Fold these 2 entries.
Entry 1:
Amino acid sequence: MRLVLLAASLSLIIACGSKEATPSGPPPTPPVAAAPPAAAPPAAAPPAAAPTAAAVGHLPLAAGALAIEIGGARKEFALRATGEVIADGAVIGRLSGDGVATNGTGKRLATIAADGTVTIVGEAETFTVAPDGSATRAGTPLVTIGADGVLGGAAVAEAAAGSKIAISGDVAARQALIFAWLVL
């Protein structure tokens, strides 16, 4: 930019001639130094995204469902990304990203720690739900998930003997979904 201004000034001097003018009138005012060009304002940081239910706490909340078939009848047990737990179309409870399970009236039923340890309110015994949805109590499998998504294990046999339970939806929902199914 300065080079362009210097070249333009030099061209102007050459074009007008280099004769000295005789001063007439008041003496010229000394030139004022031009202010340096203003720097562009720093780019504003993009607005921070509001945390989603899945992003808050240690329990990933994502949409998932269990399809339970008992004697030809099909029942749905689902988790929404908002933490709502749905059974046969009705909200029966809620999970929070920090690992708290409450029933439909808001009563705290259980918690799941960051390591997957589940504590049910009023019970001393705990169990663990892994991120893949498998669950164990004292080394005994409560819930296993086959490659086809079909659940097995002691909790499945106890809850719905002779039935088939299959999991579907976001894999990230498995821990929360199984946690909700076991405590609600």
Note: The first strand starts at residue 64 and ends at 70.
Entry 2:
Amino acid sequence: MKSIPSVITVACLLSSTLLLTSCKTVPTQGEFAALSCGPKGNLLQQTDFLPADGQRPAWRVSQHASEPSFVTRIEDGVLSIEQKGDEPWFIFKQRIKDRSLSGATLRYSALTKGSIQTEPKFHGFEHVAGLFYRTRTLGRQQVNYSAEMPPNQGEWEWQEVATTFEVPGDMNWIEVGFVHKAHGILQAKNPSLVIVACPE
């Protein structure tokens, strides 16, 4: 079992406006292969959350303010994030800067399992945990998605959670990962980010 130390980010990343995206029909495997824009297959690196020997870690963490309040553990390809302190949120994420993805529609998914308690409340954000993504344009505009799709509260066993979103045409970077804003433990495995539609 390995633990990853938290990298602290002072700015409150989740203060940006949260926007829901509408889901689109997901292509079949054959249709995936026919897409001509951008790279093929899973766009994420280190989908077991750990770097191979000699690799730099592809996953990073950030947390509200300065007091470490979440613990991460990785074992057999399963990421566990557990709330321990008083800070309101924690993000485990990977950044992608491939400009060929500009304008494409992506599907982000993972298997998740949770034991997420919403009481007692200890901050002003919604008490949820689950998938996270953020897009940023060259003009520094951002869109955040923060565990808005259930299951994101209470108890649930392993199941796939997925969302689709459109990459801005003037993409600077995108980030995908997992956010935890409640009491309890969130677990995740098999993260995937794939192109489902090319720019129109």
Note: Residues 2-197 form a domain with the Jelly Rolls fold (CATH 2.60.120.260).
